[in-house]
Amino acid sequence: MSSGNSAFRWALDEPIPSSAAFELSHPLDYDWRFTDQTVTSLWDLAHELAGADEKVILLGTPSLARSAADLPVWSGSVLLLDRNLTHFKSASRVRELHCDLLQDLPVRSEAALVFADPPWYEEETLAFLWCAARVCRMGGRIAIGIPPINTRPEIVEERIRVERAAHAFGLRLVQILPSALRYETPFFEANAMRAAGTSLPLDWRSGDLALFVRETSSIGQRPPSASRDSWTERMLGNSRIRLRNNHSLDPGSPVMHPVVRGNILPSVSRRDPRRAHADVWTSGNRVFRCFGTGLLLRILDALVVGKDPEISIAFERGRLLSKAERFQIRWATNQLLNVVKCEGSELRAHISSLRTHRKLGAQSHAAVAHQRAG
Hints:
- By secondary structure, this protein is of the alpha/beta class.
- It has two domains: 3-13 and 229-355, no CATH class; 23-214, Vaccinia Virus protein VP39 (Rossmann fold).
- The protein is 33% helix and 21% strand.
- The protein has helices spanning 10-13, 36-49, 62-70, 122-135, 155-168, 187-196, 293-304, 309-317, 323-360; strands spanning 33-34, 56-59, 78-82, 94-98, 111-116, 136-146, 171-184, 205-214, 231-236, 239-244, 257-258, 280-282, 287-289.
- The chain has an eight-stranded mixed beta sheet, sandwiched between helices.
């Protein structure tokens, strides 16, 4: 590592201890985790809906999977299907399988109960429901998180369309439990609220729970899924950094440019038009433009393994770098290390706040249902 970077090196040398209770979500995954109280309530509900020795499948609900892995909450088999796996120990009560529920085809199963918690958008809700129908047995139950009635103006019409689609999947809506779900504020949302000048309790977000029963053998055709942007991720220090796979802009400068003042996007909504300008996105909800994401990825790869990016890139190219190239690489390197330094401090403060909040227990404030992801 060149001497110009040594002042920031401590940001990479002080990783926050890995803890299942504080898994780091990325804003591009729309990944909110249940509060401990909600996890307990949902496993209590599981005992009401299915026999304790029967199979439960979890679709995008790592909070439930983690509790089942750590505690004897369920004596039957538990399988987690998720795009972001948490890597339980081999002796865990929970099996996990990498599955992008918007694109991959889950293997048919005979689960007595399926829990699902998709991002709060109609496309994702339909995709998760169809996958839930595919892995649920006849007469089995499906419990899926949905946005509350006042999340956005068109939510009533959206719910009607979802119920109609569920019927085509062989499912019948049995009941909707208002405000049955509470979520802990993830790190990226805490940063977004701070950037927006908003202050709310760390369990302010609530969701409804829709209960379905599978009544017919046919699940119909899979609902169409829109194409999504492709990103490459690297973990540097305490930051998950994703780069947009836009190779048409390479080769270009790896220097990152602001998208918003202060670099933290003050929103978690998919509808925010500023999202389209982000080529670099961190787990702290920082967004940047970058016209050389390919070169920035090489810098990241060098930093991840503790190598000097200038030396690594010069070796890869088989020549000495020009003065302009060295300047750009140093600039981008310092930018990355500064981001990691800032987000490490912010993440520590967020974890401390969560710990304090958990010790205080459930708060007495009323349930609210603001927008989670749009």
